[in-house]
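Lab notebook, design round three. We kept the backbone fixed and only want residue identities now. Task for the bench partner: fill in a sequence for the structure below.
Input C-alpha cells:
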C-alpha cells in the first residue's frame, strides 16, 4: 500500500512539473486548480521538487517556474543524442542554401520534440523553442514521422484543429501520409500556424526505423506553394544524408 501511495504521489508531482513547464509563472492557487489538487497537497508535492532544483518558487511573488535542475537534466539528455551532432552539418548547410529556419525533431508519441534549430538571422524568427513539443498530425515534421509509423498509432491520435487548415479527418490524413511516402517529404500548409509553411523529411536510424525529422519553416510570404516544390527535394536530400550517417540503408 505504501509503495502504491508513493507511486501515485510521484505521478502527481510529475504532473505538477509538467503544468509549470507548459505555463511558467503559476501561483500556488493556479497550479492547484490546474492539477485538480488542494493547495496543501501541491505544497507537499512541490517541496522535494524545489529541493532538487527542478522547480523554483519566487519568494516575493510565490509563482512557480522550472528550476535550473531541469536544465542539467535536459543537457544530459541532449548530450546522449548523437543525432544533433550528426545532423549539425546538414542543418547548417540546408539553412545556408534556402535561407530559412531549419528544425530537427525527435518522435515522442503523440508529439515531436524540437532538439535543434538553425535560424537565418536576417528573417523573422520562428516561435519554436528547443525542448518544446508539437503535435504529430499538424506539423510537417510530425507528418514526416507519422507516415512511416505503424498504422495503429494513427488511431491513437486526437486530431485537434490548430488552424482552419489542419487535417482533422482520419481518412484524409491517411491519404496525406500515403502521398508523403510516395514523394519522400511532408508539407504543413498553414496547418499548425496560420502564416507559416513548413517542409519536412523523415530521418531513419541504424535499424532503418523512423526516429526523427528535419524541416525548413518560414512565413507563407517567403515559402510560397511554388517554392514548396523546390524545397521538398532539398530537405529530403538532407534527411537521406543524415540517415546514412546514422547507419540507415533504407533510403
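Proposed sequence:
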Amino acid at each position: 500500500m505504501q509503495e502504491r501511495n508513493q507511486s501515485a504521489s510521484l505521478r502527481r508531482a510529475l504532473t505538477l512539473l509538467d503544468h509549470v513547464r507548459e505555463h511558467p509563472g503559476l501561483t500556488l492557487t493556479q497550479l492547484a486548480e490546474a492539477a485538480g489538487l488542494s493547495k496543501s497537497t501541491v505544497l507537499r508535492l512541490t517541496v522535494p521538487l524545489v529541493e532538487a532544483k527542478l522547480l523554483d518558487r519566487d519568494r516575493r511573488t510565490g509563482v512557480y517556474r522550472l528550476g535550473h535542475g531541469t536544465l542539467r537534466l535536459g543537457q544530459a539528455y541532449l548530450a546522449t543524442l548523437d543525432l544533433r551532432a550528426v545532423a549539425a552539418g546538414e542543418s547548417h548547410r540546408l539553412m545556408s542554401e534556402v535561407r530559412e529556419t531549419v528544425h530537427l525533431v525527435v518522435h515522442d508519441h503523440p508529439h515531436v520534440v524540437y532538439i535543434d534549430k538553425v535560424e537565418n538571422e536576417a528573417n523573422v524568427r520562428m516561435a519554436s523553442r528547443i525542448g518544446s513539443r508539437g503535435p504529430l498530425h499538424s506539423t510537417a515534421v510530425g507528418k514526416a514521422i507519422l507516415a512511416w509509423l505503424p498504422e495503429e498509432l494513427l488511431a491513437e491520435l486526437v486530431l485537434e484543429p490548430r488552424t482552419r487548415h489542419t487535417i482533422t479527418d482520419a481518412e484524409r490524413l491517411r491519404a496525406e501520409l500515403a502521398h508523403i511516402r510516395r514523394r519522400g517529404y511532408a508539407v504543413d500548409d498553414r496547418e499548425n500556424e496560420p502564416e507559416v509553411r513548413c517542409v519536412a523529411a523523415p530521418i531513419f536510424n541504424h535499424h532503418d526505423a523512423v526516429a526523427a525529422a528535419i524541416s525548413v519553416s518560414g512565413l507563407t510570404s517567403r515559402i510560397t506553394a511554388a517554392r514548396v516544390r523546390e524545397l521538398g527535394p532539398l530537405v529530403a536530400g538532407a534527411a537521406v544524408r543524415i540517415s546514412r550517417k546514422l547507419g540507415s540503408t533504407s533510403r
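Keep this in mind before ordering anything: The chain has a mean pLDDT of 89.
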